[in-house]
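Slide 14.
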Amino acid sequence: MRTTVGIIGAGPAGLLLARLLHNAGIDSVVLESRDRAYVEHRQRAGILEQGTVDVLREAGAGQRMDREGLRHDGIELRYARKRHRVDFPALTGGRSVMVYAQTEVCKDLIALQLAGGGPLLFEAEALAVEGADTDSPRVRFRHQGREDVLECDYVVGCDGFWGVARKAIPAELTQVFERAYPFGWLGILADVPPSHDELVYARHDRGFALLSMRSPAVSRLYLQVPEGTDAGSWGDEEIWDELERRFETADDWRLERGPITQKSVTPMRSYVHEPMRYGRLFLAGDAAHIVPPTGAKGLNLAVGDVVTFARALTHQKEKGSAELLDAYSATCLHRVWQAERFSYDMTTLLHRAPDATPFEDRLQLARLERIAGSRAAETDLAEAYTGFAFGDGSVPGRS
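Slide 15: predicted structure.
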């Protein structure tokens, strides 16, 4: 089997890349180790930056998102029983975010790919990337009980932190930057309408809490818990009681309770692998970087990566210049590190460390008061939350 771009992984990054390349007239093959049902039901966060929303629309994958997604024009910060709303459009020149689950993004992109895109092979496990430093890289994979080889001009690894793509880069050429946090998020899905129409980020002496949503009828909420916590060790009423404590305000706001349908614990870490390119192998998404979920940046960073690659390959096709491909790693890493910085800032702003001192507690409150009292500080948060630009803002395959 041969193609121009071999894409490992059918998460939102790999699927969107296939769509962008298709629109630009560049063929690709997507290899996904899991079956279609797993990919379409894999639960992940779903806060889409303005740039991600624009890219999905321009790529032809935004119709259902625009019907069913929830546009949010701000977030609420809570601390010391106070409430402060950050108004995104007023601070960013009109930008906002969209609540639309990653699972739904994948469903939309899979439908488009199967209807008119290049091959999308489910249950096709990538075993290794070979010859990445040559003009003819190959992906060795297993599909339908036998091994096969996908010969490519380029390989893009969208296969996550545990995938095979990154392993093809010699260790002596790489640098890894990482930080593990001593806490995680206990997340729940509950069949109850959200208690607020926008996301609520709460800093409390007992720990962080987040009120989010999946739909007008389903709430998604999180509690900061110690690292290594077992989700099953928390009873339903215990969770609701703790959420009420951490969201407490000085007014008459109330948290609505409902049946909890899912519990899980998400670890918190920051990770960056440099470089993001080796020869004709390019890394995208979690294969190259991970952020704590506080800043809602993971999916959006992956979108930025594949937009950068698709634009660079389209530039080479149309202009005969590899300039943008050669700059891929540096271009992506500039945006990645800004997102890492913002995610770290949000995490340390709102979470209470296990060994936090009274001095550090007061610093957190001072930082929150600065955001609430300074338009410049508030604008910095709003600009970062709604998203960092994808270079020149163009989308491959669209004029």
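Speaker note: The CA atoms of residues 35 and 122 lie 5 Å apart.
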